[in-house]
Write a structure and sequence with these properties.
single chain, alpha+beta, eight-stranded mixed β-sheet, five-stranded mixed β-sheet, 15 helices, elongated, RNA-binding
RNA sequence: GUGGGCGUGGCCAAGUUUGGUCUAAGGCGCCAGGUUGUGGCCCUGGAGAUCGAGGGUUCAAAUCCCUCCGCUCACCCCA
C-alpha cells in the first residue's frame, strides 16, 4: 500500500477548519497593511536558491529537492519563499512601481530533512515581503504585522525576539572580534562549534550545547559592534516598536542560517519550549536582490509556518469555528420517491441550501441514523404518501419535531429556518 | 547524517517479561437487526488483522534472534 511520502501529510477534511481559519486571519492582516498576494511556481531554477539562499547553507548543501527536467534544466522545489518573491520582483519590473512593494503569499516549501514534531519535508508558509524601502519604519511595520497576525489568531504567551546582525559594513569587523573571543576557548567548544569557528562564526552564538551556551553569553554581541548606519537603524526600529507597544525582547544570540540576512532579524516563539518551535521568523535582506543580479534594493519580510501555527492553535485550544455545512438530507422510501428525492436535493442546492441525498438501499431507520451521525439539522422524508400529496415531511433533527409541507414551498421554508 | 522509543483490524488497544490455552481480548467507528415509514440511549448480530516485511531458532513464535522498512522524539538545521 502506498503512503504519503515521508515528512508529508494529508490535510483531511476535519483539519480544514484550522487552515481556513489561518488563511482568513493571515489574509485579513495582509490586506489591512496593504499587501498584495503573490503566487510563484512551486519549482524554480536551482540557481535562484543556490545564489539567493547561499552556497554554504544547509538548505543548499543538503536539503534541496533538485532534479533535472526532461529538457535538462536543473529545477528545485522551493525551499523557502523570499528568493522567489525577489525573483518575481525583478522579473516583473516591480521596481518601477511605487516603493516599497508589499507582497504576501501562501505556499508550500520543501526541504529534505529528518521529520519530527513541527518539522516536515513539505510544509506551508504564510510569508510577507516589503521590497524597495530600507527605512526602519518598514522593519517596524513587518515586525508588528507578524505580531498582529499571531495575536489576531488568538495565540497567547508568545515571545518576540529581535536582534540586529549588522551589514557588510560592520559584520566583518565584528566577526573578527568574535573569533578573537573564541580562539582561546576553542578547546572547550563542542565539535560542531569548532568547525563553525572558521566557516560561520555567527552560528556559535546559538549553539544549544550547555557549555557553548555559557561561552556565548559572554561573547561580544552584534548590537555592540554595529556601524553607525546600522546602529541608527537599530535604535530607530526599537523606538518605533516601543511606540507601537509591540512587546519585544532583544536577543543578542538570535542569528540566521540563511546568508542573505542583514540588520534586523526576528522570531516569534510560543511559551512551550521545543527544538523547532519558531512560529515565525524573518528579517532584513538588503543584499539579496543585488545577489540575484538586480539593482541594490532593500527588503524585509517574514515567513510563518502554518503547520506550527495549527499545532499551537490546538495546544492552546483556541476556539476555531466549526464549519460543517450540510443543512439538509433527503431520505426516501421506494423507487418513485427516489426520483423525487433526487430532484428535490438538486433543487435545494440550486437555492443555495447544502443538501445531500441519503445513501441508497437503506431502511428509513438507517437513513435517519446516518443523518444523525453526520449532524445534519434537517431531514426531508419522502414516501408514497408524500408523493401522493405532493408534500414532504420536514423533520427538525435537533428538536425532534416534524411536520408535512407542500413540496413547492419546502425550499423557502427551509431557507427561513436556516437563516433565522 | 547521528541517537532514543515504537510498529497487533479505519482508530485506541490487551497479549510480547515466563514461546504452546492467540483458529489474537476489549473499546470506538462502520454495516445490519430489535416487525409493518424515522435518528440520538440501550440490546443483538456482522464485516474487518497474512500480529510492519523478510529470514532464522524451535515439535511450536504476535511472543526469542538477525536484517530491512516505516512511524515517532531528540540532535543538526529551520517555518
Amino acid at each position: 500500500m502506498y503512503r504519503a511520502p515521508r515528512g508529508t501529510a494529508d490535510i483531511l477534511p476535519e483539519e480544514q477548519r484550522y487552515w481556513h481559519y489561518l488563511e482568513a486571519g493571515a489574509r485579513a492582516v495582509a490586506q489591512r497593511y496593504g499587501y498584495g498576494r503573490l503566487e510563484t511556481p512551486v519549482f524554480e531554477n536551482t540557481g535562484l536558491f543556490v545564489r539567493g539562499v547561499g552556497q554554504g547553507t544547509d538548505i543548499v548543501e543538503k536539503e534541496m529537492y533538485s532534479f533535472d527536467d526532461r529538457g535538462g534544466d536543473s529545477l528545485t522545489l522551493r525551499p523557502e519563499g523570499t528568493a522567489p518573491a525577489c525573483r518575481a520582483y525583478l522579473e516583473h519590473g516591480m521596481r518601477n512601481l511605487p516603493q516599497p512593494v508589499r507582497l504576501y503569499y501562501f505556499s508550500p516549501a520543501f526541504r529534505y530533512e529528518r521529520p519530527q514534531a513541527g518539522r516536515f519535508r513539505q510544509h506551508h508558509q504564510f510569508g510577507v515581503e516589503a521590497l524597495g524601502d530600507g527605512d526602519p519604519s518598514v522593519d517596524a511595520e513587518v515586525v508588528e504585522m507578524a505580531w498582529q497576525l499571531m495575536n489576531g489568531l488568538g495565540l497567547t504567551d508568545l515571545t518576540l525576539l529581535v536582534n540586529s546582525i549588522g551589514d557588510p559594513q560592520c559584520r566583518p569587523a565584528y566577526l573578527e572580534h568574535l573569533k578573537d573571543y573564541y580562539k582561546p576557548l576553542a578547546e572547550r567548544l563542542c565539535q560542531d562549534c569548532k568547525e563553525r569557528l572558521e566557516r560561520s562564526p555567527l552560528r556559535l552564538l546559538d549553539c544549544k550545547q550547555p557549555t557553548c551556551i555559557i561561552m556565548a553569553q559572554e561573547a561580544p554581541q552584534t548590537v555592540d559592534h554595529l556601524c553607525p548606519e546600522c546602529r541608527d537603524h537599530w535604535k530607530k526600529l526599537l523606538g518605533y516598536l516601543q511606540k507601537l507597544d509591540v512587546p519585544f525582547r532583544v536577543e543578542p544570540r538570535l542569528v540566521r542560517g540563511l546568508d542573505y540576512y542583514t540588520r534586523t532579524v526576528f522570531e516569534i516563539h510560543p511559551a512551550e519550549e521545543g527544538g523547532q518551535s519558531a512560529l515565525c521568523a524573518g528579517g532584513r535582506y538588503d543584499g539579496l536582490i543585488q545577489e540575484l543580479d538586480g539593482p541594490p534594493t532593500p527588503g524585509i519580510g517574514f515567513a510563518a509556518g502554518m503547520e506550527r501555527m495549527v499545532l499551537n492553535l490546538k495546544r492552546q485550544e483556541v476556539p476555531v469555528p466549526d464549519e460543517y455545512f450540510v443543512k439538509a438530507i433527503v431520505a426516501y422510501l421506494g423507487d418513485d420517491a427516489k426520483e423525487t428525492a433526487i430532484s428535490l436535493a438538486s433543487q435545494l442546492r440550486s437555492k443555495g441550501i447544502a443538501t445531500i441525498l441519503a445513501p441508497a438501499g437503506r431502511s428509513l431507520k438507517a437513513q435517519m441514523r446516518y443523518a444523525n451521525s453526520l449532524g445534519i439539522p434537517y431531514a426531508l422524508i419522502l414516501g408514497d404518501d408524500e408523493i401522493k400529496n405532493g408534500s414532504v415531511v420536514l423533520r427538525d433533527m435537533t428538536q425532534g419535531e416534524q411536520r408535512e409541507i407542500q413540496l413547492q414551498s419546502i425550499a423557502e421554508e427551509l431557507d427561513n429556518l436556516i437563516t433565522s
